[in-house]
Amino acid sequence: MDYSHVSCAHVTQTQNHRADPLTVLVSIGTHATLQTHLHLEREAAAEAIGKSSSKLQIASFIGAAEEVIMRNKQVILRDTVSGFPKESDMLVITGSTELKLPEGSSSGAVLVKNLYLSCDPYMRGRMAKRHPGDSYVNSFNPGSPLTGYGVAKVLESGDPKFKQGDFVWGITGWEEYSVITATEALFKIHNTDVPLSYYTGILGMPGITAYAGFYEVCSPKKGETVYVSAASGAVGQLVGQFAKLLGCYVVGSAGSKEKVDLLKNKFGFDEAFNYKEEPNLVAALKRYFPEGIDIYFENVGGKMLDAVLLNMRIHGRIAVCGMISQYNLEQPEGVHNLTSVISKQLRMEGFVAPSYYHLYGKFLEMVVPAINEGKITYVEDVVEGLESAPAALVGLFAGRNVGKQVVVVSRE
Amino acid sequence: MDYSHVSCAHVTQTQNHRADPLTVLVSIGTHATLQTHLHLEREAAAEAIGKSSSKLQIASFIGAAEEVIMRNKQVILRDTVSGFPKESDMLVITGSTELKLPEGSSSGAVLVKNLYLSCDPYMRGRMAKRHPGDSYVNSFNPGSPLTGYGVAKVLESGDPKFKQGDFVWGITGWEEYSVITATEALFKIHNTDVPLSYYTGILGMPGITAYAGFYEVCSPKKGETVYVSAASGAVGQLVGQFAKLLGCYVVGSAGSKEKVDLLKNKFGFDEAFNYKEEPNLVAALKRYFPEGIDIYFENVGGKMLDAVLLNMRIHGRIAVCGMISQYNLEQPEGVHNLTSVISKQLRMEGFVAPSYYHLYGKFLEMVVPAINEGKITYVEDVVEGLESAPAALVGLFAGRNVGKQVVVVSRE
């Protein structure tokens, strides 16, 4: 994927400016691997931002009088992260952007106003230093805004698939305005009778993840036993509901009483438990699955996977969606019970949503009516403003979110 | 599977009798879970065995004069094993057996003379104490002969699928004569223009394992890169040759210079290396697979699997056939790099041959001509006599065998 469309504000000031992001100085310059769309001179930028306020809509006019320069708050990754990410690994700055498609990038690109941003566990991997080819997505570029899934409104389009005023979801920047050149990763939103934020979750990447992961990867059959870890999260809550709709026996685990209550009372899981209160995960799973687990939807990894392997049934399937317990460890935990894969003839399959985007239309046909008929429900954990985004993202890895973690950049 | 057909000699004497297996006393009795076919009285048995010699064909006549009682050497498991198995975990005794199908078991059963026995890594799991449902095969019963794959000649048949004089391969006992009631696990041998011992290997369970594991589980395509560990073993040598026939690039690893030479010079692998001489397995694999591995045929587990996971390509497949490095550890090693399963969208699938026996005919149609035309070759490591069987089986786990480990019980 090409993330070079993301405008770059190279931060030169240090931490003492973080208290008020509006006072952070923005220097002009092109990050080694990125194009900049900032046309400010250093002094002009300092002046403009010095005068800016959170109400300021038009920051300044620089150069030709017809160029509209808008304030553009951005969430910047300071440097690659190892260990547990902290809020201070990110910086909320206020740069500015020219409110038009830049010359040369207009063909095929779109200029969008970002509305909702999605906090997803896979983003942890992108904060780390990785080598090309290690994964299907590249690392974030330190000094540049994060990128990720979001819902946005098209302000200007150089791509015939989109027109001004369209709502879209897909990969955008963690900022107020983005120029998106990789429009093949954007989906036009047709159904607007559901909350737009749902396109960061149930109707977006997590939704297609749950759908493809369960129906395609797990090969589920009616009556089978299904275990979902991190079950109240963006994906888990849907997998459990899909499995119930198919007629499976479904148990979920989560990390608080509140989440366990959600699983049982809102999402209709047959059983749920708080893994933090279980001294012995193997025994806990044996209690809920005396005959063993046919399908494990894996979001956690580590000790949980080890306990599951001992409780799988012959010919069981493990859809490996995520391993959130491992992402922040310097050295991942060892998984010791993999010989069960042979003796029980298990299939473990890792997958990512983009490999299943061809199913998106079919997925919508199933899930939109199910939402409207109340057969499927969805819980979001919404925070307001880009300033709240770093804490929201970091909170994912501490399990602070209850349901899908969404950041509101703007509601319109 | 039902192993209750295996005749039971319950050993009551202790280790001081082991020096000469012919002097071990055999007591009469029925093991809690097994039927015995021994009709000897304790005293008569002691007397018969006291008089026996290795040349003795007919040990004694007991009871009705028409009953022919044959010497029946057996390899008995003393007790369940933890850690590395030792020769002394097994005992070679000389019991005797009535040379006819026992009353009541004649319908559907066959009496066979065992010719060749197969030493297979999966047998290690059966030496351990396991619970029903832990695996697709049960543990061995301490005090009873081991069971496993072998080639045998039918002496008497109560199953219309087999007749006297037929050669068969399948699950039999580690003894000279066996009554097999689970005849659904027996295959009649039609092609006898290849060595009969091949039906413990290339034309038996290891052959169908390699065939199903490679063609069915790995979903291979011409031009893909294939890595095989334990590559000179019964299964690995075939997988490498199948992959070469399909037009793949194939690298194998083994544990000695002799085996590495075999891989390159006899089996035609593109490259091979001695894993014991590699200080860094990740770097070694990177050297042989600069663009990554599409298919890993897993026979080893542990550190090898960890190194492979870091070298897999996106959408790679890992056929998990065995993990021989783990079978003798009190606590299996941890595998740390499983998050690669997600980021690289890998499929890991454990499998066992019996799930693919429906392909046996198709497999023979492919492999027998290939053997006869010299397109596929096979190397066996043959030891003579049941007395050599415990050392041969234990040797598997130290990598002492070069090629398929076979025990000759009798050549006709």
Task: Describe the overall structure.
The structure is a homodimer of 412-residue chains. Chain A is an alpha/beta fold and 412 residues long. Chain A has two domains: 10-201 and 381-408, Alpha-Beta Complex (Quinone Oxidoreductase, Chain A, domain 1), CATH 3.90.180; 205-354, NAD(P)-binding Rossmann-like Domain (Rossmann fold, 3-Layer(aba) Sandwich), CATH 3.40.50. Chain A is 22% helix and 25% strand. Chain A has ten helices and 18 strands. Chain A has helices spanning 42-51, 123-127, 205-217, 236-246, 257-266, 281-288, 303-311, 339-343, 360-372, 389-396, and strands at 10-11, 26-27, 58-60, 69-77, 90-98, 110-118, 147-157, 167-173, 177-180, 186-188, 225-228, 249-254, 271-274, 293-298, 312-320, 347-350, 380-384, 404-408. In chain A, the strands form four sheets. In chain A, strands 6, 7, 8, 9, 10, 17 and 18 form a seven-stranded mixed sheet that branches. In chain A, strands 13-12-11-14-15-16 form a six-stranded parallel sheet. In chain A, strand 14, helix 7 (303-311) and strand 15 form a beta-alpha-beta unit. The radius of gyration of chain A is 22 Å and the shape is globular. The relative contact order of chain A is 0.13. Chain A binds chain B through residues 125, 133-136, 292, 301, 305, 314, 320-323, 326-327, 331-352, 355, and chain B through 125, 133-136, 292, 301, 305, 314, 320-323, 326-327, 331-352, 355. Chains A, B: Residues 86-407 form the Enoyl reductase (ER) domain. Chains A, B: One of its GO terms (molecular function) is 2-alkenal reductase [NAD(P)H] activity. Chains A, B: Keywords: Oxidoreductase.
